[in-house]
Amino acid sequence: MNRILTFAWIMAAALCAASCDDKNDDNYEPAAATxxxxxxxxxxxSNSKGTVTVSEEVNSIEVTLSxxxxxxxxxxxxxxxxxxxxxxxxATAEFAAGEATTSIAITFDGIQPSxxxxxxxxxxxRYADHYTQVDGATTYEGSVLRAAWKTISENVVxxxxxxxTTQEITSTLQQLGDTDRFRFxxxxxxxxDMYFKVGAExxxxxxxxIEPYANYDPYEGTEANGFYLxxxxxxxxxxxxxxxxLPNGTGVNWICILLSYPGYGDYSYISLDKQAxxxxxxxxxxxxGSYYNYIYINFKW
Length: 301
Description:
Radius of gyration: 28 Å
Helix content: under 10%
Number of helices: 1
Order of helices and strands: HEEEEEEEEEEEEEEEEEEEEEE
Largest sheet: 8 strands, antiparallel, barrel
């Protein structure tokens, strides 16, 4: 009896193996072999896995590509499998000699706001290696959403005190669609908007960290964490730090916003529920070159 059962199991396993072997299928076709001179180009895993949400002012997003063989310069054809109306996909990705990573810009002047626009891309087969494991893939599917700015308040009042004077400066707080991205329009009467994300809970209960994501340059000091307010749309590097006047006539040369100080907690934070927060700044005054530090500016709306 045991021999009969054993034989039955062997036969069943053999039949299963035969049925699972694609090569026994009349329709089986082996995949194309990778060319000997293939550069192994792929879409990097660092690319967004979900929908990229942008503001009305943004007209493109970057998609990163990498390659295994980097010796020569190359113009790699990009296959646009599908795309929504209004998206423009470049025909090629350009690698300089020795360059392992590059990017292409997906532009979208014509897409409608508040509508998700999808696209699907693939590396041309002559440049794609489907068999070598890489940190990415030879195909990429993405989407972009152009969100509109929603006004939370047009009456955010900043109380600014320094040099023996106090003044109130009003700004508008806006949110990018339903994302965690916000901006203060014309921050402290400057010609620039202060863009930030509402981050993790700060060292002050009930308030969240302010984290910049545009219009800024990192503060490079080792003793503190902060950023300079800078204009991303400036035509030259010198124009990134425009000067302006506060309502009381004080000229401003630049502003550095202090985020945190080791051992002392967070210095800039916000609460959407409490409708209040604080930004702490360093500032250079233009007329005399006076340097003001640790100006604590409370705001509310």
